Amino acid sequence: MTTSTMGEMARPYLAAFRARFQLMLQYRTAALMGFATQCWWGAIRIMVFAAFYGVHAAAAPISLADAVTYVWLGQALLALLPWVADPEIGHAVRTGGVGYDRLRPVDAYGYWYARTLGWMIARAVPRAALMLLAAGIVLPLVGLEAWAWRPPSGLEAALLFVPAYVLMTALGAAVLMLANVIVAASLNERGVNAILTPLVIVFSGSLLPLDFFPDALRPFLHVQPFAGLVDIPFRIYFADLKGAAALQGLALQAGWTFVLVAFGRLAMERMMRRLEMQGG
Amino acid sequence: MNGPLNSLALYGRYVATSLRAQAQYPAATLMLTAGHFAATAIEFLGVFALFNRFGAVGGWSFGEAALFYALVNIMFALADLLTRGFDVFGTDFVRTGNFDRLLLRPRSTVLQLIGHEVRLSRLGRLLQAFAVLVLATHLVPIAWDAASIALALWAVAGGVALFAGILVLQATLAFWTVESLEIVNVLTYGGVQAAQYPLNIYAAWFRRLLTFGVPLACVAYYPVVAILKRPDPLGAPDWLLPLTPLAGFAFLALSFLAWRAGLAHYASTGS
Amino acid sequence: MPQILVEALAKTYRVAERAPGLAGAVRGLVRRRWREVHALAGVSFSLEAGELLAFIGPNGAGKSTTVKILSGILRPTSGRVEVGGLVPWQDRVRHVARIGVVFGQRSQLWWDLPVIDGFDLLADIYRVEATRYRSRRDELVALLRLEPLLDQPVRQLSLGQRMRAEFAASLLHDPAILFLDEPTIGLDAPSKLAVREFVRRLNREQGVTVLLTTHDMHDVEALAERVIVIGQGRLLADGSVESLRASVLSERRLYIDFAAPAPELAIAGVTVRARSGRSLELAFDPSKIPAPSLIAAIATQHAVEDIHVDEPAIEEVITRFYDLHDAGES
């Protein structure tokens, strides 16, 4: 296949991505509010960490500086975390917009995946930029380096973080697509989010780095799919995972992305067939 | 005709209506309730994990921290249960234009929004918070006498007012911004998160914010210190501790002032 | 004093402008440009109790802005409005207790509740006294044939059924004025006829003042004695359907079926609008050539099988009117 036909094939998906991306960028107030939210959460988490580290720092699996970076990174990229289903899906099913998507000569899963990706990234970009400015540049400038977001620990960590970041985004979108399909099939957006949110927040390591949980749980926590959303890429970032361990982490992210996309496609096909039968 | 009794009767009608509507989907309601129970239980797991790894913090044991956690979550669950209409105001009322319909009815918009829905699923958080309360009572142990029960109820009332005020503020912002969902988290869930740890572990600026800005400490930390019959490590006098929940009501009153400004803005833009 | 008085009503919105493309989206994130939109630019009219007025105009003309202001939802930029002696946006609660509003595209009923439960709740909201409520409800249920629907949840009703329920819901508190915003939109033909018949009876028999906005010119023809045309925020015409027609398009149409292929006709003041096989459609000005003499002139020269005179369709009249005033959708 030549590059131009490949470009031609990707066109509707890129268009779907771009349309959603540009639309979401318009919500300026929302971006500022999101940023404020994340500063607040970050500050609370860091203060709580600092209090506990102050009691018994030796009990911690990572240094306080790394924990602080972990928190800021997590807040900056929170919009990439698949903790609520794409609100447009429920809307599209209720209004019958999904019917139109079936009429388009595109792969329905790919099309929605691109849209969801656009939604996630557009919300993440302005927030991440503001967070980097605030926690990575302003905090050290005002003499609060101890609480700042630090750059990656070395070149290897920085280079490995690039694929880890791409994979965490791809994995996040795959998880969201699964949630989207369940929302579309059950029309119970709140119910799905009520279960998805705690699951993702805890098992991704967004609430606490996974190693903070009791040591007995580690073997399970380190291989479950949500670890690839936060814990693995962030530990790669500050070189807590390096060399073979880092590659293993990337492989886990890629593997789970593949499995969840396959599973999501299957679920979506079944759902679409059911919608067709209902004529909905 | 426009007296408080009449409004209360209408509120009763709204509640009955809402419960009947939810009873039509028993499975979904149960699932949501279970989901909320799980969500909050998992949050508590995070608190436990930290205490389990590090031990006591700021002079507070895990059991004592559990009491902070339980009361804050009871407050938030009740406020969330009662003010659903404000919570979904941006998405379900402003963006859809349904708010116009409320304006077309000869009742206060606040009453109509409070009556919009009484979310049974919030009982999930409430139940979990009560379970943690029982746990805390055993771990500390807390002697629940008439005075401490009264104080706890008073603190919860102030806390419900405070969280309701936060939700009203959040709804007010929706008059200006369309996608308001994330603001929810700043003060509601974020507030719960902040107030479920004892105040003295935080930095001074944050303590001041939680006392004088968004007075979460006034409805959670100070009354709980009084319930535990301990002197405040931050030095607040004993006589003041039981009075602090008043701040929650003051906050609610201010929120309604902001709400009225939002209404005026809506009337001039219509969106 | 008229029931509804509107003087020099103006409403200006400020809308954010966005440059196209990604660069525009990013720029909008930082700095935003505003543009003023004059939704209403000085509209005046008045309405007596018991009138039925249709408000028409292309999309974006200012119809719904006017309805929103009159119903108390929106505050105008300038101008004076009094409805039943009240300024709607200043005295919202008292004002809305006296009006009913039906939006064709939005429901006021509770989606998950049986129709009757929604009615009961509305009676509480509007503080309708119990016996009065029962008699009013029964009257509306009979008029709108709602009996078999009362126990069904609203979400299960067809659009036509739902509209009937919406009408009843808007009238339970016996409002003196009813605002209808595109009440027949999306309805099938029998439902449209039923809605029109109901509105007509409500206006004629119960004396309810009706202000209707619509895009369906058949609504206007069937219902309204008076039409206001609005375009780009200005009042373009205010009068009867007939006067509107006369002001724009006074011509008549003559439809003829000939026994043989349609002939070439050359009559002064008559234009051929369409021709197919043995049929012709002619346009003529009746003030210049009266219909009988035109028909006679044709029938004496050609064998005619069928012939009838008609007015141009109201849609055509109104389209022509918009064109004349350059008021089409911009």
List key phrases describing it.
heterotrimer; A: 280 residues; mainly alpha; 11 helices; 74% helix; 0% strand; globular; B: 271 residues
Task: Characterise the protein shown here.
The complex is a heterotrimer of chains A (280), B (271) and C (330). Chain A is mostly helical. Helices cover 74% and strands 0% of the residues of chain A. Chain A has 11 helices and no strands. The two termini of chain A are 37 Å apart. With 271 residues, chain B is mostly helical. Chain B has one domain. The mean pLDDT of chain B is 87. Chain B is globular, with a radius of gyration of 19 Å. Chain C is α/β, with parallel strands linked by helices and 330 residues long. Chain C contains 11 helices and 13 strands. Chain C starts with a strand and ends in a 6-residue tail after the last helix. In chain C, the strands form 3 sheets. Chain C has a 6-stranded mixed β-sheet, sandwiched between helices. A 4-stranded antiparallel β-sheet of chain C has the order 11-12-10-13, with helices on one face. Chain C has a 3-stranded antiparallel β-sheet with strand order 2-1-4, with helices on one face. Chains in contact: A-B, A-C, B-C. Chains A and C meet through helix 1 of A and helix 1 of C.
Total number of beta strands of chain C: 13
> What is the H-and-E element order of chain B?
HHHHHHHHHHHHHH
Share of β-strand residues of chain B: under 5%
Q: So, the CATH homologous superfamily of the largest domain in chain C?
A: P-loop containing nucleotide triphosphate hydrolases
Total domains of chain B: 1
Using the CA coordinates, give the radius of gyration of chain B. 19 Å
Q: Give the ordered list of helices and strands of chain C.
A: EHEEHEHEHHHEHEHEEHEEEHEH
Residue stretches of chain B low in confidence (pLDDT < 50, at least 5 long) are none
CATH architecture type of the largest domain in chain C: 3-Layer(aba) Sandwich
> Could you estimate the helical fraction of the residues of chain C in percent?
25-40%
Q: CA-to-CA gap between the ends of chain C? A: 37 Å
What share of the residues of chain B lie within helices? Answer: over 70%
Global Rg of chain C: 25 Å
**How far from one another are the termini of chain B?**
31 Å
Question: Structural class of chain B, please?
Answer: mainly alpha
Individual helix count of chain B: 14
